[in-house]
Amino acid sequence: MTDGVLVRGLTKRFRAVHALAGIDLDVERGEIVALLGPNGAGKSTLMRILATTVLPDGGSARVGGYDVVTQSLAARRSFGLALGDERSWYWRLNGRQNLEFFAALYGLSRREAHGRVAELLAEVGLEDAADRRFDGYSTGMRMRLSLARAILPAPPVLLLDEPTRSLDPVAAVAFRQRIAGLGRARNMAILYTTHDLHEASAIASRVVVLAAGRVAARLPGGTAPAALEQALLDAVGR
After folding, report:
1. Among the listed residues 61, 4, 2, the one whose alpha carbon sits nearest the alpha carbon of residue 188
2. pLDDT for 165
């Protein structure tokens, strides 16, 4: 049984809309799976189920080896989550204080939190801005702080929901490179949703295309953006 992400026959319906209609998906430790699809394809619903904030109607999903429904607390401890529109920060605190607050929520002692936070700030390139107030951070810096918080408990699984959508192209490239490095160094299973075909091509070990709540295509990492675009067009045209 994988301690990454394992999804089998997952379904979710919102009234007459089948958001997910029998999804199968695997993400192993050490790989990055990019999830592509048009709006309404089911990407956000899948991520919310994996993050234990939405219950599925059928099928199963496991994160870190734990069922997201029957073992939701253990599943939550097994993943880190970073969102492209993350807002749950204390804007008057600096970056270090924000991370130390969340470290306390994870049960780290003050001494443990101090060391762990210093390590993570260096890892995401924010050590020089650690004592700057959060409201003075650029969008890219805020996203890097979100990444640091996501890996604070050293989870085996990392869920990233369109993390670069508000970043400029240069910051987005730097963020992707950082994710790829972290994935290798920490041997994490990373599920990465994006609308950016170049990003999916550059970062993914595998690409999964969703359409109308179903897996429409599975493509290898490094597939050219033009081929990914065609797969999306084919999926939408079904």
Report:
1. 4
2. 86
